[in-house]
Automatic annotation (TrEMBL):
It comes from the Eukaryota. The lineage of its organism: Eukaryota, Viridiplantae, Streptophyta, Embryophyta, Tracheophyta. This is Uncharacterized protein.
Length: 370
């Protein structure tokens, strides 16, 4: 993560229909909006991998993202039924980019050796590589070659329709992000992202984008009001042509969609691979604000309304993160994005009387105070 950035009756037939729809959707589908949670491990006091998987299962969380092929985590996931987004870490990109045999071995060791006991959903090749600046700029030339070689190894195993291959980018690469229709990948970002979008289009793979209204708010407080970032604004909504933007999340998402379209990928689907709000560490970071953000984000993406630019297309979203991580670098708030404390206790009070018919992540997040 970079710095830029109704209660329902028990027998409601519509709710039962939605449950059946979720259960029988294909492996990757544009209407599938189930929520996952990112499992970051930058802490010295975190539970074991077995405990983490059990915590996901006991809270009905059916999707996970991990940031490296940790053998203990992969073993713990065997037979769990949890769908996995697995990262190829940035540190591995250079070694994989120019050697198909090395990439094939990476897939064999970290994917095929666990499949089908582990339900791999997406391989994310690199996270937030920025060609413009920072420590990741030198890695930009290695992202697409690695994506291609990982994809070829997955395809050779006959799994290209079951396991998608992508990369995780973020809002910093999108220029002219307001109004959203002006979003684009310009300059070095364009040279970097254009070929990636073409690859995703040609291989029918999604683009992963980390979207953080929190960072956009704290860096632009005069122009990005807190209620707009928290989905609680009641008026003054920006208009972009025929589209009205009632929250910052949709505006950031659609700016990314505009950039993807201009790069030649009008049908490339975006998966929100991270989004969250910290509970401490800055004036805007509080338990109340985090609760409000998560509740409203889940309501929004699960509602199936999509974004103004992609109406009716539910938004697959991964919450960041499962635990507070006391060894994360950056500002103090970076250490406080967890839905749970390292002792596995939820940071927010969980309501027991809502969404009780579906043991999904809603029971964890929707009505925690959240």
């Amino acid at each position: 993560m970079a710095v830029f950035r109704a209660t329902i009756r028990y027998y409601d037939p519509f709710l039962l229909y939605l449950l059946l729809l979720v259960l029988f959707l294909p492996n990757f589908h544009q209407t599938d909006a189930q929520i996952g949670v990112c499992n970051g491990r930058l802490g010295n006091n975190l539970p074991s991998s077995q405990e983490v998987v059990q915590l996901y299962k006991s809270n009905g969380i059916r999707r996970m993202r991990i940031y490296d092929p940790n053998p203990q985590a992969l073993e713990a996931l065997r037979g769990s039924g949890i769908e996995l987004v697995l990262d190829v870490p940035n540190s591995d990109l250079e070694g994989l980019a120019n050697d198909a045999a090395t990439a094939s071995k990476w897939v064999q060791d970290n994917v095929l050796n666990y499949y089908p006991d582990v339900k791999f959903r997406i391989i994310a090749v690199g996270n937030e590589v920025n060609p413009n600046s920072g420590g990741t700029a030198r890695l930009a030339p290695f992202v697409l070659p690695t994506m291609s070689k990982i994809y070829e190894a997955i395809a050779s195993a006959g799994l290209k329709d079951q396991i998608k291959v992508s990369t995780a980018t973020y809002s910093a690469l999108v220029s002219n992000s307001f109004p959203p229709s002006k979003g684009s990948f310009d300059g070095a970002s364009g040279s970097f992202m254009g070929p990636i979008i073409n690859f995703l289009k040609n291989t029918n793979n999604p683009l992963l984008v980390n979207i953080y209204p929190y960072f956009s708010h704290i860096e632009n407080q005069q122009t990005v009001p807190l209620p707009y970032a928290l989905f609680t604004a009641t008026g003054g909504f920006p208009q972009d042509g025929q589209n009205q933007y009632r929250n910052l999340f949709d505006a950031l998402l659609d700016a990314a969609y505009s950039a993807v379209e201009k790069a030649g990928g009008p049908n490339v689907v975006i998966v929100v691979s991270e989004s969250g709000w910290p509970s401490a560490g800055s004036p805007a970071a509080s338990v109340q604000n985090a609760a409000t953000y998560y509740r409203n984000l889940i309501n929004h993406v699960k509602g199936g309304s999509g974004s103004p630019k992609r109406p009716g297309r539910a938004i697959e979203t991964y919450l960041f993160a499962m635990f507070d991580e006391n060894q994360k670098s950056g500002g103090e708030s970076e250490k406080h994005f967890g839905l749970f404390s390292p002792n596995k206790q939820p940071k927010y009070q969980i309501s027991q009387n809502t969404w009780s018919t579906i043991p999904l992540v809603e029971s964890l997040v929707l009505y925690c105070t959240i």
